[in-house]
Amino acid sequence: xxxxxxxxxxxxxxxxxxxxxxxxxxxxxxxxxxxxxxxxxxxxxxxxxxxxxxxxxxxxxxxxxxxxxxxxxxxxxxxxxxxxxxxxxxxxxxxxxxxxxxxxxxxxxxxxxxxxxxxxxxxxxxxxxxxxxxxxxxxxxxxxxxxxxxxxxxxxxxxxxxxxxxxxxxxxxxxxxxxxxxxxxxxxxxxxxxxxxxxxxxxxxxxxxxx
Length: 211
Description:
Strand order of the largest sheet: 3-2-1-4-5-6
Low-confidence stretches: none
Structural class: alpha/beta
CATH class of the largest domain: Alpha Beta
Radius of gyration: 17 Å
Order of helices and strands: EHHHHHEHEHEHEEH
Number of strands: 6
Helix content: 40-55%
CATH architecture of the largest domain: 3-Layer(aba) Sandwich
Strand content: 5-15%
Oligomer: single chain
Mean pLDDT: 95
Number of domains: 2
Number of helices: 9
């Protein structure tokens, strides 16, 4: 029996993956670190700091902190420009009506999350596990293990919605059922997911059949 749906944030609730990647590229280049466009797929779903350290293992801490600070500043300055992912409001409403718990599990900073949720009036989640509570980055399953523990649920009682290979791997490592969301990537690129949906409208239709 499904008792909760766990959402990733960027690319699943809010359309921020590409703008964040662009901002990160620009800020990194400013300090002499070049990131190519073909690295986008590897960026999705990961903490920005972890991604930069993965790309540039020897980056000095001061450079890393400067880049991350400027990326955060750019995000907050442009927060009203980021649209919600199509169909997310209707899906949240349906799950809440059916008494299914909803949670967010992401490497994104909690302050950023709360600003977005408040802006769009969707701050109805039962639980938010953010990058502030997690040491590692996806595909490490730590974030989802923490979420399951806080929800007091078993993997078989939840569905995770992810838009990235790293997120899919992290969720699958817990034993949870994973829905791949095609916000940016194809079914082939999210081949590790149990099911693939092009958008939340498709997911809602499917939920109406199984709940």
